[in-house]
């Protein structure tokens, strides 16, 4: 069932070690078929080198596994909450990529210091608040999703396709699993550059709003003209 | 038309991922045939692994595409202004390489702290001023070129073959596309070393003028004797 | 004798250069057969590319070499003390991996700033005190082991599977040689992230205790549910 | 003539890009035959991928090229002064490796913060003083050698097999070309760790003298017992 989706999600998962975003089995990617209301996600605790497309676990939006030989990733309840709250999202990825996780450990959003950031993320990449003790003790992974949704109240998740979770690490998303991973790679690069920018200038301000607007909207929305191969 | 130039520009573009200067499709290289008044440039939004020499787009100095199946890189108007203003330049490259882009995001020129820098860049690598809102809103990429030209008033672009654009990233150039990429690789290395130098010593000064002169002029100009294979 | 153990210890040693934890011949891994009271360890001064499983040296718990063509690693007396004091440990690794060694050179334990750390190490990774001059001059490598044992008084080495030695570098351990190396890789990653976290926020506190508990105990102990492939 | 020496020097030169110490054609290695009073050195400006053992240039100790199709490295006069002043040295290497060069650009010696350093360098790695303007203008490369020799007055170059040159980069040496490169790799690693150590602890002191002595002399001199394969 949904062999093409499983293949896509498999390939997106394999991009994580290929792009240096994960160590060992850390990280997981999912992708959803909105019509069928099912998403495919990496199984828990399987090494990337042993992973096969058919190992992807199919879940419904009630959080039930409907197909697959393995348990789904332990972070599945987080993915589920994001799919339920963000209807425009088609793929989700979680990693502990080192630069983004360092911002998360510092509990700081990543300011938009330049056009590399503005090409993909409109404004700062937010940092979700710490979970309260009771949110950690019960349904921790579900609450991780809910606190992300809380963070995005009044925001468009298509304009800011990623978030940091305090003391934890990044989640990113996109229209499908491949784009989610693409955005996770960009977030790691942007997190690295922002840290170095602050090292070079203690009192550094965000990039001017006009340049943030220019770069984001030349790539996104109805008037985009950048990176379009045309003919 | 100009198959050799397209081949050179193609190879120079492929050096960007090989040298670790770009992520995904970021970055673009062009090279010019001054006699014919035409330059070849990477097409917009094509992945490096899919790029072929015949995909390079040929442009004239009025900014018109004269050959090619694709749209030219969105940054083409920047390249165009540099070719028009700097007649000694034969190749241009733009990247978001992480160390140079971090200096650009900090809005700081890269001071000449040592001979690695002085071997290639005579004095600091300047940082062009921020564009004004109206320069961003209309003809942004052209204005990016014009503000670089403004930065180099009274300077020799052959002596300082690169620049940072505030909140954006580096441009570099050379006598051809290959040398432009070579200078971009050196700028990234120099940007990394300069950041680390400042980490090691808060109050660090530029390298003495005599050693800057010695290193630059033993490699450049009529009395150069360094790196010349001889026979 | 104990060919399977030697093979495991050989493979764990070869993981050190593969994971980028060692330069040249630095680093050594051992693994123990508790029933026979013998451990296998890397020989001293042999390049990784020349290493063979049969080169592993077999030692008894009196510190005597009982099989092998070479001298055991100079750090063997440290391994020996750890095996004697920590009966639950089945494998030990020592490296000079750069991030962990930098914390050791600073003489600082690595605080638990996030879940990457808490998934593997319960609380801070301690830094053993400096050896006294007389402990350095006589039986230095044995005393290095004893000071680690002293550091873990009242602690469970299965909950904190690694340590820093002041001015020196990290030791890590696990239920076997493979897990010891896995923990050494994680310690290096965690050391890197913790350094960057402090760079991003001067006054950073440890992750809240509840999240440390949650992450450690969802992976370890009787109620673990994370990273278990299930079926 | 001296084909074996040329082969060794060729191989040592090829280690520089393999170990990530050089960009493009930067860096050069030489090795000497003390009986014949001749040293072999990398030719100037030849790309590493095009280098052949027969390209090595043979020089005598008067600084004259006695065999070879190319000009010797521009840094040859520096190598020459070191061979003349340090009779125990059999091989020399110069690079602009990024961490060591950053210390050189900061004009700071590398303090001995730990055992990785003490295993190879006894005490700090010194930083030679800046050359005076007249030393730069005339016979710059020779004077670079002389100021290193000046720095080592009263020191044993076999105990401290490397140096930084202010605003420039590192030189390292050893009993032959291979060991010189080995020491250059270690210096880069040690330079990296020392920078990170200072980032982690502002007021960090050198490693205690007893541990420096222990680590250096367990590997060097008549009582060495470390890293000796034995039998």
UniProtKB/TrEMBL annotation, chains A, B, C, D:
Superkingdom of origin organism: Bacteria
Pathways involved: Carbohydrate degradation; L-arabinose degradation via L-ribulose; D-xylulose 5-phosphate from L-arabinose (bacterial route): step 3/3
Coiled coil: none
Keywords, comma-separated and alphabetical: Arabinose catabolism, Carbohydrate metabolism, Isomerase, Metal-binding, Zinc
Cofactor(s), names only, from the UniProt record: Zn(2+)
Protein family per UniProt: Belongs to the aldolase class II family. AraD/FucA subfamily.
Stated name of the protein: L-ribulose-5-phosphate 4-epimerase
Taxonomic source organism: Anaerostipes rhamnosivorans
């Amino acid at each position: 069932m949904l062999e093409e989706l499983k293949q896509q999600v498999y390939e997106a998962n394999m991009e994580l070690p290929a792009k240096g975003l994960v160590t060992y089995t850390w990280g997981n990617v999912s992708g959803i078929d909105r019509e069928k209301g099912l998403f495919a996600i990496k199984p828990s605790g399987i090494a990337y080198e042993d992973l096969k497309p058919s190992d992807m676990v199919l879940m419904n939006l009630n959080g039930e596994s409907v197909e697959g030989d393995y348990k789904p990733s332990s972070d599945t309840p987080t993915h589920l909450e994001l799919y339920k709250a963000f209807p425009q999202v088609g793929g989700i990825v979680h990693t502990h990529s080192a630069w983004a996780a360092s911002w998360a450990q510092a509990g700081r959003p990543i300011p938009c210091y330049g056009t590399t950031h503005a090409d993909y993320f409109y404004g700062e990449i937010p940092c979700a608040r710490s979970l309260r003790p009771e949110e950690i003790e019960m349904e921790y992974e579900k609450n991780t999703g809910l606190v992300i949704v809380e963070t995005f109240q009044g925001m468009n998740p298509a304009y800011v396709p990623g978030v940091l979770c305090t003391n934890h690490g990044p989640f990113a998303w996109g229209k499908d699993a491949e784009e989610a991973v693409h955005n996770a790679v960009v977030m790691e690069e942007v997190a690295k550059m922002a840290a170095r920018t602050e090292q070079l200038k203690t009192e550094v301000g965000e990039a001017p709003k006009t340049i943030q607007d220019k770069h984001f909207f030349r790539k996104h929305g109805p008037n985009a003209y950048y990176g379009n191969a045309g003919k």
